[in-house]
Amino acid sequence: MMALPAFPDAFLWGIATSAYQIEGGVQEGGRGESIWDRFAATPGRIEDGSNAGTACDHYLRWREDVDLLGWLGVGAYRFSVAWPRVMPDGCGTVNEPGLDFYDALVDVLIGAGVEPFITLYHWDLPQAIQDRGGWAARNTVDCFAEYAAVVTRRLGDRVRHWVTHNEPWCAATLGHETGHHAPGHRDPVEALRVAHHLLLSHGRAVEVVRETVPGAEVGICLNLSPICPASSEEADRDAARRLDGSLNRWYLDPLFRGHYPDDAVTDRIRRGHLPGTDLPFVQAGDLKTIARPIDFLGVNYYSRLVVRADDDGEPVAISVVPKEELTDMAWEVFPQGLYDLLIRLEREYRPPLIYITENGAAYADGPDDAGRITDTRRVEYLRSHLSAAHRAIGDGVPLRGYFAWSLLDNFEWSHGYEKRFGLYWVDYATQQRIPKDSAFWYRDAVAADRTQI
Ligand code: FCB
């Protein structure tokens, strides 16, 4: 296996998780219910019928998990704060034990030489807010700003890196248009309103971080994919443009250019997802708030999408490689897509800095008789994507760090526990963590690069 080339001196090596996927302890320490607790409790929503009541039991085992980070030698750890742990009702009352949990985690991370990157929202909305209309209600934006202020006031003396939202496309589209994620709605009109409120709340949270934590870096994580037409036919190329509009540009354009993409708005109007010719949920000043300068863009990259047009011209994703070559998510392994995406972002949007805030692959490999986990495909996935990232740096992309997804196998949303993304294998019966070959490989890659500094 080829070694990686040297990365620039300041390059940050990290690994990522999110609260709901690993913490468990959903009834502990005064935590309130989240929309994901409610969703997972609804029969038929989670493929394996599981829920995240215990997950990786990180709420109790977090010190052991910080030891794993120390062993890996990473310089940064991206994790999220569970809003319902901190504010069980979403707004108003603060639950101090919830804040204490993250406060202690931050101290121990810093003591271990690991820089905390905190995501404020990784999809676990307090159910109490959903009961008042969720992200479709504009008032939720104010609640989020209040929550952001509570968390940054408590942790901002030590935490220098803040992510407002994780993948607003998923929260809006999977949560409100396709129904695959909590709260499980299927209403494209509502999904656009939700996307706007998520973006607006991002802008408000940027303002909060700037006020509360002077000198901090703040940004947002987007799930971005290059969209490739399945053929050079006009219909397929237009389908690719459409999907690029709804998945990538619907978020990038407001954030970096201060407006929604005209062609994508027109597409939505044609489909009847917007009444008339405008965006009824946009109020004066909103786009200015959304486009407040950020310090970095977080890129979550897993794969590209190849699309053809269906009979109505709508994009349909197709697979162009044999099934055996796909990851367990049925995603194509396509490192060139990461390079192409980074170059495009640099050319078209010029973010001041980029971090790859998620990148990884689901493969089921478990322990053999000797207890070893030979996840060769994951090692190759990580290596090839890091090489692509390195090439992009060489070609001028201001990429400052990389976070592998994920530290542990965990609750993969609607897929439950069947999809394993961890560099550590988790035995859910005993909660034992076992390093996969990829954990050894990542540890060595990080160490080799850090000693080159
Ligand atoms: C991303 C999510 C993350 C994880 C990975 C596989 O969309 O941000 O929580 O589920 O996919």
Describe the structure.
The structure is a single chain. This protein is 41% helix and 15% strand. By secondary structure, it is of the alpha/beta class. An eight-stranded parallel barrel has the order 1-2-3-4-5-7-10-11, surrounded by five helices. It has a three-stranded mixed β-sheet with strand order 6-8-9. Strands 12-13 form a two-stranded antiparallel sheet. Helix 7 packs parallel to helix 9 (188-212), helix 8 (168-176) runs antiparallel to helix 9 and helix 14 (376-394) runs parallel beside helix 15 (437-451). The longest helix has 25 residues, at 188-212. The chain is globular and about 60 Å long. The chain starts with 11 loop residues before the first strand and ends with a helix. The model has no long low-confidence stretch (mean pLDDT 97).
Q: What class would the helix/strand composition place it in? A: alpha/beta
Main sheet, how many strands, which sense, barrel? 8 strands, parallel, barrel
Unreliable residue runs: none
Q: What's the helix count? A: 15
Radius of gyration: 21 Å
DSSP, total strands: 13
Helical residue percent band:
40-55%
What is the molecular shape?
globular
Spell out which ligands are present: beta-D-fucopyranose
Oligomer description: single chain
Q: What's the order of the H and E elements? A: EHHHEHHEHHEHHEEHHHEEEHEHEEEH
Assess the beta-strand content as a share of residues.
5-15%
- Between the first and last Cα atoms, what is the distance in angstroms? 23 Å
Q: How are the strands of the biggest sheet laid out side by side? A: 1-2-3-4-5-7-10-11
Overall average residue pLDDT: 97
